[in-house]
Input
Amino acid sequence: MLARIVGIVLGAILATSGYVIAGLGVLGDWARNLDLGPFEPHRPFVGWAALITGAVLVLAALTPRPRPKPPRRPAPVNLEPVAEPVLAVEPAPTPTPVVHAPVDPEPAARTPVAQTPVAQTPVAMPAVAAEPPPAPQSAPPAETFEDLRASLVSLSRQEAWPQAAQALNRLLRMAGTDREKAISRRDLGDFARGQGRLDEAAEAYEEAVSYARAVRAAAPKDDFAAADLLAGALSGVGDVAETEGRLNDALAAFEEALALRRSHGGREAADPKARRALSVSLERLADLREDRGHRMRALDLYRESYDVAARLAAADPARFGADLASTRARLAELEAKVAG
Output
């Protein structure tokens, strides 16, 4: 507000000064005889420049400035907690008893008297305990795909990027089924997009979509996991396309992802993660619709998302209260734009 007032005052002073100096009119005698020094031959030019600059400042101060959009809610990550693998402890080796050989006592000193033969007494050897056989060592459990992916997610949250990249490379090599390949390629797309490598991210997301479509085709029609896998890969395709300005591709990907999440309405009613994923998909498509000027369609999508977010927040305010507040703010902003 202070900047606007300063702009109006400064613009008014420049505009009135230019008005008088250019000879367009008089506002008393204070500026009509003003000596411009070396710029006196250019009095009309100086006057018009001051007039135009002042008018621009006044218009800039009076023009309302659009409020920036709040940050978009992050996409849900479908990660289930994975138990840490139990490491087998190698048993310590059993100490082997050391047996010292018997040492003959020092012979007695000889005397000049006649020697008397002494009967030899046999020395009993100590019994040596038999060494027990070594205990069999248990082999460490083999690392599974789920264990490695849980490690990748943990390293990413800790921002240990070199170790996360190594884990991701191992995950890509370990993936065997179409489902594992789709998940690993989607993770590769997320990792590359976070590093700003959009071309690599787009290629990885496209591969993830291809494998996810194969999983979806082989799964039953009511398999929610297959639909959710394909929807997540399509959302990645849409994010990269929107960032690169390919709005038609982004719109097609977001609409297909939303249709997949809507196709399991009963599941969304019972699973909070699936309901939040539906809400985020609605808002992604709504933001893209607004950017293309489709405010009424964006408003309908945000109203639908608000209903889903409200039910989630009512069931778990600590977990979903922030999402509801963000959706409410965006909905109010869109309603104001449509009404205005």
The domain at 151-339 is CATH 1.25.40.10 (Serine Threonine Protein Phosphatase 5, Tetratricopeptide repeat). DSSP finds twelve helices and no strands in the chain. The mean pLDDT is 77. The two ends are 22 Å apart (CA to CA).
